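FORM 12-B: Structure-to-Sequence Request
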């Protein structure tokens, strides 16, 4: 699934993304670390792996979207 980085806090390595429908979805340090990223800037396109459904959705991995 693709999304756009919305917020990122380098101290906690957590933040949020906006799904393509505009829905915000938070991610934690574990998801950030799983993707191997060093930094994330708002506006970057990212690839996310999501677990759960509806209100129970959680980002398990976030990484940069590559072509």
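FORM 12-B RESPONSE
SEQUENCE OUT:
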């Amino acid at each position: 699934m693709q999304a756009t980085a919305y917020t990122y806090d380098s101290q906690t390595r957590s933040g949020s993304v906006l799904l393509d429908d505009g829905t915000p979805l938070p991610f934690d340090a574990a998801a950030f670390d799983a993707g191997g990223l060093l930094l994330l800037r708002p506006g970057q396109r990212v690839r996310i792996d999501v677990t759960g459904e509806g209100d129970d959705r959680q980002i398990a991995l976030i990484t940069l979207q590559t072509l």
